[in-house]
Amino acid sequence: MIKKKQVLSAVLSIAITVSVMSIPVYAESVPLNNYNTISSESKDRERNSVELSGEAFNVFDIYQAHLEAGNPTYNIYRESWGIDVSEHQKQIDWQAVKDSGIDFAIIRAGYGREVSQIDKYFIQNMKGAQSVGLDIGTYWYAYADSVEDAYKEADACYEIIKDYDFQYPVYYDIEERMYDNYSEAEVTAIIDAFCSRLQERGYYVGVYSYRSFLNKNVYDFIFDKYDVWVAEYGVSSPAFDHEYQMWQYTDSGKSQVNGIFTEGEALDLDRCYVDYPYIITGRKNDGSTQTPVEPPVETPVDPPSYIEQIIETRGIDVSAWNGEIDWGKVAAQNIDFAIIRAGYGKYETQKDYYFEQNYINAKAAGLDVGAYWYSYAQSPEEAVQEAQLFCKFVDGHKFEYPLYVELDESVCRGLSNSEATAVLNAFCSYVQSKGYFIGIMGSESFLKYRLDSSIFDKYAVWIFSYSDTAPVFSKFYGMWQYSSEGNIDGIHGNVLCNYCYDIYPQIMKDAHLNGY
Question: Same CATH fold, 305-511 and 8-35+58-281?
Fold first, then answer.
């Protein structure tokens, strides 16, 4: 049975007052049983023992004072102690672990994007820990290099964990060195993709990493959406900038827990501050139960009212990379439109070699047509140069679909969000001033995390996200590129495939845009 994820803030609204809700969880370290030593080694690559400025307070004193003030509701804040394990710990005597004072275990399910990458001891550890009555959570180790990969990792994780019950969250463990070379937007998008996928399937999810990585490499909104399990060793409390619900405070705890037989001291110890068994399953600490609060459901914004007139249309986008195309065969497969690359960059020699041929032949086959430009602009001035060239190449043509500009994350890696927004705004405003209906094309993560959302109120949106489900986006998008592996007669190799949800041909003709 899958346990539904509950949004912590929803539970907080019942359990404690608003003033307490706003307090971050920064607690002094209390030894587990007689644990009076904490490793000075940190999982944090920037070995760091910096403490929070000022005296860290104990959240449990605050919650207890709140209860003593007369609030009779169940206190969801409960201190518990746990370990996290993987195949590296090999055989474990779970009864001995529990007898050491351990309340819960976070067990690795696997890593990567294939079900075959299941942790070798996952099933054995799950059975052993559950048989002695420990509460269980799980984690998946990240190697995803894109949003699409993160979805695949989430799918693999789901296939492995779907037949088990969990009283603690499913965590995404993201800590590989390669992520140092990714932008905040890219890392954030990868985390959000994995977590949202499992959240949609009913799991309570969280993110795990070391303190400095979370502080520096992840956008803040992730910590509002998902719970946090933070690692930092050799400190009295993590110097994390946001609320956290669980703290991995040492990786050298084997001597403190019986039942672990591997050589050396390697064993992660964790301190949890919330009563996950209650939040996730409704089970109170006294063994009684209460139905957990249902979480709010994230939904896309409502489309404009005239969208009700639309029947979804299917299209492709092509460039010189697709070579010679038999447009008659394409049209015979219920393809309604084609978005054709006009060129890229700021030089006339960068006009797409097949643009004119593709335009003429697609029209002759009865398809509606749009065009796009791949931008390399690094400033508003360069964007205008490219836009002028784009308008020159499309002059004298009629387009039933918008003209689009694509600015890829890899191109604008050195630009801030405001700079990338300014580049696109300069390009679009110029093209728009020439009587064209202009839009922005980009990946789901790029559009969500790298641009000021106000720009989507000015220009059309074409989003690409390779998934079985349509992306959830804060603004209405008229077109979704859902696959890069389409198989279309008349075109050699993989084809980019799209759905359109807007009545673009009618708009162009009624508003006399794009050559009409």
Answer: yes
